[in-house]
Amino acid sequence: MKTQKLLHFACLFLGLVFSSCALAADEDEISLTIADPYIEMRTGPGSSYPIFHVVDRGENIIVLKRKTTWYKIRAANDKEGWASREQMQKTLLPGGDQLQFEELNQDAFRARNWEIGVTGGELEDAPITSVYGAYNFTPNFSTELTLGHSVGNVSSSFLYKFNLLMQPFPNWDYSPFFTLGLGNIDVKPSATLIEPSDKNNDFSHLGLGIRKYLSRRFMLRLEVSEYVIFSASNEQDENEEISEWKLGFAIFF
Amino acid sequence: METRFCHIFLAFWLVLFLPIPAFSQSVESEPETTPALIQPEVERREFDEADIDGNDFELILSAGYLSIEDFGVNGLIAAKLNYYINEDFFVQVALGQSEGGETSFETLSGGAPLLNDDERELSYYSISIGYNLLPGEAFLSDNITYNTAFYLMGGVGNTEFAGDDRYTLSYGAGYRFLLNDWITINTDFKNNLFDMDVFGENKGTNNLEFTLGFGFVF
Complex ipTM above 0.95? Predict the structure, then answer.
């Protein structure tokens, strides 16, 4: 008796869950009408996958998901396949308007808010790998946070830095920029060397670079920086100065 | 006198009623701006690209073997995150953990170990670019087909082993088998190149890696 009751509850619960899922799915579904003579459905999200079905003009399709620039669609006969972004842009919305995807071009690049990138280069002859995230307040002015790891023969260092970036000519194809910031570097000497201990110092840095929009969400970035490490102490009279170059790419949102 | 009355009367009427035709005209023109009597049955919905479920990321949990030069072949676990840039390229960030075994010298001499337990732990990270060289399909039966891809990878990173960070270059190839749109099976073969100075002189080492894992696309 008890199990039967439980079963009822379980059925009710599952029923509720499924019906709500079905409702949710219904609300999210994007239905489109084909406006071109036909659109092609491929077996996979890529131009090298074969076309196995075509949907004719006037028929409706439902968009299920997106992977890179490919859209998984379901035709009226329940066939599912992948259609390209170019072909999807020639379909009509329920109101009769043409579907418009956000154009990812140089204008979108200029209007970007967020940016995440990876760079590789050298910090005083030792290879350095960095990741950075940036927020753009205006096309000319942004702020960045960078994490870097440099591994050399005698030591490895981990650094983080916060900097402001000025881009005086954001409309130029190769757009120059200047950076100014502060950070901290932690230098760990190699285990095979007999050195006192880790060195941890703050630094300021000044940089100069060039950015170039590539395509879609991508940009190229080349940068050279000078660091002044605040290592002066009782034993050491002067601050250390080191230089860095790095090249990388970034994705913007 | 009568004509004057007539004039005043007419003028009065003119003043009073002349604007009316103009007014009535504006009333007549109003139906042009009223909404159509037949409303379209389909409801207009704003299209938002963000409503389409994007699937550009994949988290892969894998296990396998790592051959650490001079330190034997050992188990390896790794977590990888792929971001698919377009149908051809992807970026991968990987984290891995393994442990170095004993060198032949340590085993034969039976003497003091070269490394302590902490130093024997190996961990690495890498940032790589992958290229889907051969996207394709695998046919299991008449009507069961799976999408696959054979890809090449190359990247940079760091390996922490024997108490030191070691700048690492890696390259390799892999095979991705998509069970459905969400779950994949990945197998990677990679070579990790880094310098080691455990035996006194600095030498370049080749450290081969094989992993098999499940990926979750989101």
Answer: no
